[in-house]
Sequence to fold (203 residues):
Amino acid sequence: MPLPPVAFYSIYEISARWGCPAADIAGWAAAGHLQVLAGIPPVSCGEESIAGTVEVWIAELMPMFRRFGPSDEQGRLKRVKPLGSATWLKVTEPPDGLPIRSSDLLLAAGPLQQFEEERELLRRPASHMAVPNGLTRFNRPCSSLGPNLRNIGISSAIGTSTMPAMLSSPQVTGGIPAKTCRCPAAAQPAISAAGHPHRAEIS
Fold:
């Protein structure tokens, strides 16, 4: 029996997949186009105890996704919404909110695939993308990625990735100037796993 499809993707995996900054994805989520989830330990919301997979209020976490300047390594989750609920709950314990990192934020595969299909991302050729300096959309440094999703082309369905092959490419090895990445350091391992052009020597 084959393995089931991947259920969740991190914001940084989708950033690498769509060829756009993580700040764009966080912004679309804050505007209501995407739902951001997180798995959390038990927290108190008044008299209720909430745990497991919940929707997060991404607008409160935007300092982790700044377009310019360093992003925060960690945010505080102060409101959550249990899946299937229509009500946001305020986290009362811990009193300052639950610490969370940007790499902990997830997007469900089903809604992501629907988002791609509605915008015909799966049917756009990669040639529609403007790629500077001969780099491919997978080995560009994140500071050079285009800000507009309309200009990107996606050729594979959710769950299929060409990232591992790109990681071993000579273009990736030699084509990235040092210290070009503006992503938070805590997110870099997750980005590397998704095929984002982070390398160990980039600080």
Remarks:
- Residues 62 and 92 are 21 Å apart (CA to CA).
- Residues 8-194 form one domain.
